[in-house]
Amino acid sequence: MTAAVEQRAASSTGSDWLKSRTVKRFIRHRLAITGVIMISLITFMCVVGPWLLPYNMLEIHIRDRFTPPLTGDYLFGTDEMGRDLAARLFMAGRISLMVGVAAMLLSTLIGTVIGLVAGYFGKVTGTLLMRLTDSFLCFPQVFLLLTLAAFLQPNAFMITLIIAATSWMEVARIVSAEIRSLRERDFVTAAKISGASHTWIMFRELLPNTVGPIIVAATLTVAKAILLEAYVSFLGYGIQPPLPSWGNMLNNAQQFLDTAPWLAIVPGVAITAAVTSFNFIGDGLRDALDARSDMP
Amino acid sequence: MNELPLIQTADLKQHFPLHKGLFGGQGPVIRAVDGVSIDIPRRSVLGLVGESGSGKSTLGRAIMGLSRPTAGTMTFDGIDMARASSSELKSLRRRMQMVFQDPFSSLNPRMSIAETLSVPLRFHNPGLSRSRRKDRAAEMLERVGLPGQYISRFPHEFSGGQRQRIGIARALIVQPDFIMADEVVSALDVSVQAQVLNLFGRLQRDLELTMLFITHDLAVVGHISDFVAVMYLGRVVEFASTRELFSNPRHPYTEALLSAAPSPKSANRRKRIVLKGDIPSPLNPPSGCQFRTRCPYAVEDCSHEVPKLRELSPEHKAACIRDDLSLAPATQQ
Amino acid sequence: MTRVLTVENLNIGFRSEGRELPVVHDVSFTLEAGKTLALVGESGSGKSVTSLGIMRLLPPPPQSRARGKIILHSDEDIDLLSISEARMRRLRGDRIAMIFQEPLTSLNPVYTIGDQIIEAIRSHRAISARKARERAVELIDQVGIPDAAARLTTYPHELSGGMRQRIMIAIALALEPEILIADEPTTALDVTVQAQIIDLLRRLQAETGMAMLFITHDFGVVADIADRTIVMYAGQMVEHGQTEAVLETPLMPYTSGLMRAVPELETAGLNQGELQSIEGFVPNPASLPNGCAFHPRCTHTLSGICDVPPVPFEDAGNGHLVRCKRWQSILENAE
Asked: A123-138 and A169-183 are packed helices; what angle lies between their axes, rounded to 10 degrees?
């Protein structure tokens, strides 16, 4: 009976996916839903916000320097050059979110392929790939990131590549562990007997059975990538001004911490909100995909 | 009976090193299958019985070509599997199919029944169009007693018995000559077990299949097979036609197995032989006859050399040196 | 003939998606000292849930709910369904013990066999460690494991399946319970080992006089061990009587159907054609058929009779109870 329940939870296919237990469990997960709502809001504001505001993010209003938030037309106040902080925040959000999502997509792709191949082939290939993964994990990620960023052109594209290159390992490990246990299942032997090729077995038989854990890891990777981008930009190796990102806004804000604290607080809150939301969603997905959480 | 058997194994061995030494040194070896020579005549069912650890499933996997035997040969329709060219192998693989024990793990939960049944066709009959594959799948599903329109459903929508039928359909869809069935009914409830056994029997007769039926259940073997091989610790200890084996067992282990199988009818109550101890570890099997440590009839000579599987009468072989025993049959006299 | 346990109208339901699904209906029986009662049925028949209900090992309400009476007879009668969890915990293991199908998961892999037996004794009895150790050796010896004293320091993974089941039996019997519930204890074992364990249980029962509730799906095992037998289907008792009577002259078509569905060793190799299977499958507890729960699968069904409730549990003589409206005419036709 337990097995049947799990199976049902594992397959959300066709029209009945809304009724599936996985979706139901996710909807019941309050934090996850909060995360979804917050991320939707943040994304909406970042996409639409800049058009709704009266000022462009690069417009300088030298007389309105250091306007505190909620003064006049300035929702979040202005910075040391009198630029509208709200406009800058939303534009920065576009970049930070984009970097986060793009880095996630790329690192998930790399991690999935490496994990799939390593898990499926085991033996020499698998061992080599997993040792490679482990060796990447040996370096503290931030230092690796900073080293790479110091040598390469720091722009949004490069930062995305660098973050992806330093955060695929976790997905790779998850996928390879998952594949190693699935590989022993009878349906894989059945596919071999059916004459199926390695590619078929990896991508058609095994991969669809690991989407759950991959999605969870990917969601958490977005949070990590946003945080990493903020780190690097804060230290000045990331997105370069005048292009704003949440990280370099913080960098800029530190010299005015006592006079204009909102310059730090506003992007700080944005980063925290986005990162925790993604983490909530990730946790929610993990619980929803784990059929055992349904048991009494 | 002069026809060449479809499956022949000669002194087949499958050893597994327990843990490999760092530099390829020889560690202890598990002799899971240790010199098995059996023939499966065409269009007949060979039942392979044994307890856990007897090596029956390992032998089955070696016959299916799922593992490379340590020594010995496996011949399918006169072709030595180890020497076959890759194109020969490809066609051999189509002719040998398998049905699994666990109806839950043997179907991919993410694939519809149509997709699952199409996989063998896709690779073994590449010429077939997508719609033809689907038609064949639906036909096959009906053949195993499920409505053809179930084809677009997913495994979790089926009961254990139904899934086992789907597993049978997958094996038969490429029109094989040989089916290996590994404990296919042991996970099923009694009433469903009978349905699946009947289906196997019917399909085997209609499609003239050759079958290797692996199970621990003697009653099931007695019902479905034409011949029975009894395995103990990696070796075949007795081989005979089914009626002969059940009415005239010649190996003490067979006798013990038959007597231990409980029967609901008091009229059929047999004298119970309760063996001492457990199956010894295949890491260091006893010297000589491997069964001697539990055998009620063991004598001094049993420890000296490994008894050969000798032909005692046509279609009856046993590996026991004590020809003087008269062992209790399962059947009434 | 001393009754040690009486189960009266036990009903158990599980909560699922806001509804209560009944899985056990009106089960009643008694256990007698020195006797074995078998509960037989296929998966989903409610046999294991019944046994877990007696041990109060089901998830607490509202996930599951048990109604009825489970009375443990001793100096005073104790209704197990109405006592506190703390009191139940004292009775469990002490007065009623249980063994399961899979002995590996029931033993803790990080403690030695000795530790686990001693712990079982000392958690209920205030005796010295040395005394408990002596008792453990005695128990291991009693369940037929040679070299008992040396076995105290072995770990569960060092033992075979049959040996582990013996250890589980030793732990269950450590406090000399009046009742042993055995839930498919031989299903995971090989036939030759199964024969050993059944012999052992019979011997121990003769020595200690405990009552046994033996849950199984195998009529062969039932014939070997049980004095009385209950056949369950879809959460109901459908036949109850002396084992001999139930096996030799089954009155419920489901019982006879199940027995015919199993191939017999005696006719092995005779090519007797197809087995008589029972078509269809066990109904979902959420939507039981009207009237007799078995009627959609039964070959003797008469519409207008079998699909109309109620279907009483009738006495067919000599305490042989059957839940079938047509048992008399079926019996007459057979003769």
From this structure: 150
Contacts of B119 in chain A (CB under 8 A): 191, 194, 196, 200
| Segment C35-55, tens digit of pLDDT | 999 999 988 899 999 999 999
In angstroms, the CA B43 to CA B206 distance is: 10
- Break chain B into its structural domains and give their ranges: 7-232, 250-333
DSSP symbol at A64: G
In a domain, C328, yes or no: yes
Give the whole-number percent of chain C exceeding pLDDT 90: 55
Query: Which of B90, B98, B104 lies at the smallest CB-CB distance from A3?
Result: B104
Please give the tally of structural domains in chain C. 2
- Distance CA(A76)–CA(A266), nearest Å, equals 7
Overall size of chain A counted in residues: 296
Which range (A92-96, B47-51, B140-144, B201-205) has the least confidence? Answer: A92-96
Tell me which H or E stretch contains C322: strand C321-322
Last residue of a domain, one of C153, C176, C199: C176
Tell me, rounded to whole angstroms, the distance of Cα B85 from its chain centroid.
Answer: 26
- Please determine, for residue C18, whether its predicted confidence score (pLDDT) is greater than 90: no
User: In terms of Cα–Cα distance, which of C76, C26, C77, C35 is closest to C53?
Assistant: C26
Task: Delimit the domains of chain A by residue range.
Answer: 21-294
- Domain boundaries, position C126: 106-176
Is C51 domain-assigned? no
Who has greater pLDDT, B272 or B240? B240
For residue C321, pLDDT beyond 60:
yes
**A121-135, B246-260, C223-237: which range is least confident on average?**
A121-135
Q: What is the pLDDT of residues A59-97, one digit of tens each?
A: 777 777 777 777 777 777 777 777 788 888 888 888 888
> Which residues in chain C are contacts of B220 at CB distance < 8 A?
263
- Is CATH 1.10.3720.10 the classification given to domain A21-294? yes
Mutation target among C196, C219, C243, C262 for the B interface, most CBs of B within 10 A = C262
The Cα C106–Cα A258 span in angstroms is 63
**Does some domain include residue C45?**
no
Contacts of C205 (CB under 8 A, 6+ apart): C34, C36, C180, C212
B120–chain A Cβ distance below 8 A for any pair: yes
Contacts of A279 (CB under 8 A, 6+ apart): A35, A220, A223
How large is the average pLDDT for residues B31-56? 92
Q: Which chains pack against A, by 3+ Cβ pairs within 8 A?
A: B, C
Are the C-beta atoms of C331 and C251 separated by less than 8 Å? yes
Look at residue C307 and tell me if it is in a domain: yes
> Considering only CB atoms, which chain C residues are within 8 Å of A1?
44
- Assign residue C105 a region (left: φ > 0; alpha: ψ between -120 and 50; beta: otherwise): alpha
φ, ψ (nearest 5 deg) of residue A91: -65, -40
How far is the alpha carbon of B113 from chain C, nearest alpha carbon, in Å? 20
Q: What number is the ipTM of this complex?
A: 0.85
C59 → chain A, closest CA residue: A296
Mean pLDDT of B234-247: 94
- Contact status of B157 with chain C (Cβ, < 8 Å): no
User: Which CATH class for the B7-232 domain?
Assistant: alpha beta
Confidence of residue B24 (pLDDT cuts 50, 70, 90): low
Measured distance CA(A221)–CA(A164) in Å, rounded? 9
Could B109 and A8 be called an inter-chain contact, meaning their C-beta atoms sit closer than 8 Å? no
Which residues of chain C neighbour B222 with C-beta distances below 8 Å? Answer: 263-265, 267-269
Three-class SS of residue C30?
strand
